[in-house]
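Practice set, problem 2.
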Amino acid sequence: MSISTDFVTFYLGGHYFGINASDVLELNRNLEVTPVPKSAKFVRGIMNLRGQLVPAIDMYERLSLERHSGLTESISIILRSDGFLVALLVDDAGEILSLDQDTFEPPPSNFSVISRELVMGVHKLSDRLLLILDPQLINRRAEKSKNQLLLA
């Protein structure tokens, strides 16, 4: 018997990504991001989410992807992991997919080092690859940046 997992999917620079649905708190469109001087390059700034400051992670920068679209709108995927919130800024949200573990494979070796550290693996779908991100690693990196912002 195969175990299935639900993934929230999203698009970024022509790639199709997924993240475990149990780590996603909510999705928002066009939340205001306040830039923070001296923050990490991948931290676009902070958002006020109902009174809580949340680091906004530019996923193009975080994954070292070339920005192809001129979109000014973005979708914020709010993750909760280990009691910490972070917003991933992506191009567009996809659907929720329930996938069996038997379609999961390690990330391809031709990924960049930065991408490989955040991509846990891939699911081969009938028409494309779904790249699965590790939310705990994204949160650990963002939490360090948030702590640096608060100390500055």
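Problem 2, part (b): a different protein.
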Amino acid sequence: MSYFIELIINGALTGLMYSLVAIGFVLIYKSAGVPNLAQGAVVMTAAYVVWLLAALGLHIVVAIILGTVLMFGFGLLTERLLLRRMVGQPIIMIVMLTLGLEILLRGIGPGLLGAAPKSIDLGIGLSPIIIGDIFINRAYLVGGVVALALIGAALLFFQTRLGIKLRAVSDDHVSSWAVGISVERAVGISWGIAGMSAVAAGVLWGSVQGVDWTLSTLLFPAVAVAILGGIDSIWGVLIGGLLVGILGSVIPGYLDAIVGGGTRDVVTSLIILLTIMIRPYGILGREDIERI
């Protein structure tokens, strides 16, 4: 029984860390209406930026703060140079653009800084927290707390004046223009905020598994979190993260020993497929009905 509880706890914390990646994905979709397939590589880039700043001699806290500022600027620049040129184009072209950006960033980071994993020391420690017979990953616990804080901040942000403007832009660009909202600025800010959230994800995941190209593969479970919870729902990020994390921990925890491993990705894939087939707008996503 203790093993089952341990799988649930560590799975839930892992899922919350997936939510750190998914929240950037959802923020852009919620405010700009664009599915950003580059978010995994943006997380990887953020981790490389913080690692490089720390390697240059900056204290890790200063490196994280400066990295957050730089990644906000990176998001703004990405929107200005790439996404703004796609205004009026079919949504599939924008999706392909973000996918191309994902592939480009995945090659540039390791190409310039080396493919060997880099370490980010946050001073968390490697020893687990032991409660009876249950072992809790200390780094995942910190990551889960940070994820909850960021999700709470995102919920509050979308109740502010700026957040309401971003939601209006996502609903209807033309109507937003008509009432005086700068759509370009709103979309740029959403990309900048997604870049900032990528710093938290990149630093925490980088401290756990090292900083290398594999951080970009976090896009896969993050997409599962976003689709399951609702691609335009911040609360959905929380619920989806917990469910994806728990299912991706408990099921492989028992099946891997039988089939020889590798079932985590299968579970994640099934979550995506079944959600799209049964409830394509997710648990808390908004169901839009259009006349064709």
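Answer key, part (b): Residues 2-278 form a domain with the ABC transporter involved in vitamin B12 uptake, BtuC fold (CATH 1.10.3470). Strands lie at 129-131, 134-136.
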